[in-house]
Write a structure and sequence with these properties.
Blueprint: H1 2-26, H2 31-65, H3 68-82, H4 90-95, H5 100-114, H6 119-130, H7 134-144, H8 153-176
Helix pairs in contact: 2-7, 5-6, 6-8
Length: about 180
């Protein structure tokens, strides 16, 4: 199973890189021109979201530097172990819904602490790849288009993140151990 997944993963990105422009040409879409329009809109959006991004990164830096993350991890350790989730991945599970760069920092810290091939790093990497920065998306993208009431977006995003964490633990245990 692991070999099949590795072989499949080698072909996914090249297939999309080749398929999408060819599909656009088949549908008679001016692919390059549409790419340039999208890049221009992306740049405008990036400039609009800078204040939201700075606020989130500042809040995350303060949370980590204050020691609150360590206290929260120690507080939740018994409950995490009771449900079969290693407490060592708790910082990644908590930071990932908030910020992508913060969760990348947590992942790099875990690589330095436990080693690149450790069980905890495999789980954290899977969480990083399979969950979303829910609060970041709500704050930045909803803020960029002035959506004030997110309704069900927050609960749905957090449920999806929790499912991603649980499935990451299960999948890594199944494939690695």
């Amino acid at each position: 199973m692991r070999d099949a997944i590795e072989i499949f993963s080698l072909f996914v990105l090249p297939t999309f890189i080749i398929f999408l422009p060819l599909y656009g040409l088949f549908k008679r879409v001016p692919v390059y021109e549409q790419f340039v329009v999208g890049a221009r809109e992306g740049f405008t959006t990036a400039v609009n979201i800078i204040p939201y991004l700075v606020a989130i990164l500042f809040a995350m830096a303060m949370f980590s530097a204050s020691g609150a993350m360590d206290m929260l991890t120690d507080l939740l350790r018994p409950a995490m172990q009771a449900i079969g989730i290693p407490a060592e991945i708790l910082p990644m599970a908590l930071i990932r819904p908030l910020t992508g760069s913060g969760s990348q920092g947590v992942l790099l810290d875990m690589v330095q602490r436990y080693g690149a091939n450790s069980f905890f790093v495999h789980i954290a990497g899977t969480i990083y790849a399979s969950t979303e920065t829910t609060f970041y998306v709500l704050a930045v993208y909803f803020g960029a288009v002035n959506i004030k009431k997110t309704r069900h977006a927050l609960p749905a995003g957090l449920i999806a993140d929790a499912a991603g964490v649980i499935l990451a633990v299960w999948l890594v245990r199944w494939l690695v151990h």
